[in-house]
């Protein structure tokens, strides 16, 4: 593997961030140097800032791994956002009503979140495998449906009179995921995400299931003719993908927010697509990419507060990254096939 | 065309070629796969720009593709007039368009129904539509790329009758083909390409077929492994098989393939071969029964669209299809076993790849095919389904593939060969079945197979 | 209110809710018939809605706002078109990128232009003039139908969605047709967005498209890739949106009503599957391949 191939995508993404950020700051009447200084200081400048960046890293890692798993199987799961939300909702529902031993409570919340997200993904899988309904459209629709389901619950059955807005009651501290750095929001969710990345890498590279999944994604017809059960792969892959995204929602509830509301995700499920693409759908590189995007998420807030550059520009920049990398990815394969 | 040169990366596909097409003359362009015929034809047509050299065209150039470039779900008239639609105001003048198609068809003696939907037409009729579309533009030069690949012998004669008439009326015709007999029968002159150069140019009258073949290969033709005497044993029994994929169905077919014999299914493409092969390969639902076919090795018709994952390495492709059987250890892939198997295939089948980690897409068609064949025969299957196993590969690779199939037969495997190429059928088969419109139209033992009779049966005759 | 009055009010509501979806669905249909799947409809509607508000606010002329919406949508359509034809990117990924970019930049520019996040100031709206756009949606559906079925350009466009190589063999550049089709489709989606912001309302707010671009995508399929079908599908989804409005305040939770169009989209996809086939080359990049010779 040559240097250009290994570092092309991250360097391209970095160039887009610098160029796009500079334009946005210039439009906002801010000296780009000051703006980037605020962004870097806000994401890496101290223990608190770095911890918050790592919280965002973890939050992006789950859905990005989910996206990568599905995309590797040729399945366009655009629904990580909804799967994450129903996962968070399930965890929040258990957390709001649970009365047993704390350690089982946390486990139950995480399992419920994976299960809920998994069912949300499996639904799209079944619709695709059994009814030929495009998973692109169904997962998009399920995102909206998940949002309304969640807002119904936090506005009604799970609404907490203690809360100011539409959200569940705060979790008791014994249902929080253990913190890595006291006094911050950084919990062991990050370690869980990293372990998951390693597991996914192993699954793809070494197992028969991963082999079938990649075959289905890279060449479905040869796969089908060579023993790959495409409908089964479709359902299982989307269920697994949804479970990972859902688990991400659960860890946000027990690890960072300590309650559930519909603002749980500022679009992690969509940003995750950019993260996964930057990393070429490789689980290990996704860890690095998630850190980079985590910096943008946490630094963007600081940039907005200190340099008055609206943080939404981060999403616009992410869009450009997706567009440019989609193009670049193709050019790379075309060049190789010409030889 | 003068001094034409064209390279793709480090590979020079066409290396200094002069070619002249004259009005009124049918010229054949022959050569092995990879000799540069396709590139030269693309340059003549204007689809590719040469790196060096000049192309001079007098009049327009028409091209009839091997895989027809038709819009399957549209009507015949739409396919023919597209780009030159007669108008009435802003709309298409449908009546005028159909009238023009009918007149064009009548003028060339190629009867078609302008209102038919293309996908419902048989192959020979589709080719007529393709030819008519080109003729509508009144080309001065007509390029034909493997035009008879999907035609029965009788249809070939009818097709060339039209082409000869066109040529006599002043059109210059270039036929790119690998069917040398047709070259001798219909072409006026022959150009032979080898490694990007035109190495010979004959008047086709008075040339021996062998001489053209030797010129193509650049030496003697490679030999295929000898047929050993075997004592065939019952192995695969197919009874009242019905299966359908698209318009290519088998209807009530029964036959046997015994261990130690090669049974060849002869026939023109589109008579049920695909359904038969897919049913036997276990990838198409069927009615009737297939017994004894479980331990099978399959050589699919289209290596890249059916057999291999092009973006994967040689090694990973060797695991494909075996990942639930020999290439598996529990839930994991047996990576060491697969690597050993890949190395063995590369050696035994002379697969020329930089390494077993090379992507399959970067290999030549012949090497890809050798890999597919090697994988199919790897675990010594009791039953082999080989569908067009030498399609589009050079003579050397074809001889190697045919030799390995013969060796598998000699070692006791039951081999079912499906081929559109009668030469291949006669070279390999112990028994020959003729498939026509999804049914078996005749069965012949090797000894008393009559080529003329089989040719007639393939076209629906008796 | 009389029964007739209730029905009349509902029809008015239906027309209002149908129009933006219809424009986007017609735009999506045009693109897919040429062979390009447009996941970016949502972003193109966003761009149209935002540009319309800015232009209307700046000039005081709401119709210039509508024009701006068309131009903004067309610009994003052309971007997708260029990516899908000249660069041959994965169309799904490119569309997703366009959505991220359009939504993000609209939110960013909102703060820049109006100095506040969330929503713009109010601007001159089309008022009763917006009924012209409602009528236009139906007219466009009819016109597109005639265009696709009966004109030479329509025949070529459909052929591009079926087999671009055959179009090239006939001496026409299929990439140019696809680019034009997706650009025109983007323009229609942009107009749909403009209708939302300065037709139905008089401001832009973040997230106001609220998945209508995705609904339109479902409407393309539900409408069997035909303009009249897309119009019908838009009415179907518009009906559920209108219904949700009517049933507000009843005992049914409002969220259940709000999710209705999305549930209906999934049900429609499943229930009406297999009735029509997608264009054969829908979503498949085209590149001339010399191996075909």
Please identify the structural class of chain C as seen in this structure. mainly alpha
User: What is the domain total for the residues of chain C?
Assistant: 1
Quote the average pLDDT of chain C.
91
Q: What string, H for helix and E for strand, traces the elements of chain A in order?
A: HHHHHHHHHHHHH
**Shape call of chain C:** globular
Radius of gyration over C-alpha positions of chain A, nearest whole angstrom: 20 Å
CATH arch. level architecture of chain C: Orthogonal Bundle
What is the CATH superfamily of chain C?
Answer: ABC transporter involved in vitamin B12 uptake, BtuC
Main sheet attributes: strand count, strand direction, barrel closure of chain A: none
**How many helical elements of chain C?**
12
What Rg of chain C, in angstroms, do the CA atoms define?
19 Å
Distance between the termini of chain A: 16 Å
Total count of helical runs of at least 4 residues of chain A: 13
- Classified by CATH, the class of chain A is Mainly Alpha
Structural class of chain A, by secondary structure, is mainly alpha
Residue ranges of chain C: pLDDT <50 for 5 or more in a row? Answer: none
The CATH topology assignment of chain A is: ABC transporter involved in vitamin B12 uptake, BtuC
* Strand and helix order of chain C: HHHHHHHHHHHH
- Portion of residues in helices of chain A? over 70%
Ends apart, CA distance between termini of chain C: 71 Å
Largest sheet composition of chain C: none
Task: Break the fold down into its secondary structure elements and pairings.
The complex is a heterotrimer of chains A (about 350), B (about 450) and C (about 290).
Chain A: H1 3-27, H2 32-44, H3 47-72, H4 80-97, H5 102-131, H6 135-155, H7 189-206, H8 208-218, H9 220-225, H10 230-257, H11 268-278, H12 283-307, H13 313-338
Helix pairs in contact in A: 1-2, 1-13, 2-3, 2-12, 3-7, 3-10, 3-11, 3-12, 4-5, 4-6, 4-10, 4-11, 5-6, 5-10, 7-8, 7-12, 8-10, 11-12, 11-13
Chain B: E1 2-8, E2 11-17, E3 26-31, H1 37-45, E4 52-54, E5 61-64, H2 76-81, E6 87-88, E7 91-92, H3 94-107, H4 123-135, E8 141-145, H5 153-168, E9 172-176, H6 180-186, E10 189-194, E11 197-203, H7 209-217, E12 233-245, E13 248-259, E14 261-266, H8 273-281, E15 287-291, E16 296-299, H9 303-307, H10 314-319, E17 328-329, E18 332-333, H11 335-348, H12 365-377, E19 383-387, H13 395-410, E20 414-419, H14 422-428, E21 431-436, E22 439-445, H15 451-458
Parallel strand pairs in B: 3-9, 3-10, 5-8, 8-9, 14-20, 14-21, 16-19, 19-20
Antiparallel strand pairs in B: 1-2, 1-4, 6-7, 10-11, 12-13, 12-15, 17-18, 21-22
Helix pairs in contact in B: 12-13
Chain C: H1 3-34, H2 41-59, H3 62-85, H4 91-114, H5 130-150, H6 152-162, H7 164-169, H8 174-200, H9 212-222, H10 227-246, H11 254-258, H12 260-271
Helix pairs in contact in C: 1-5, 1-8, 1-9, 1-10, 2-3, 2-4, 2-8, 2-9, 3-4, 3-8, 5-6, 5-10, 6-8, 9-10, 9-12, 10-12
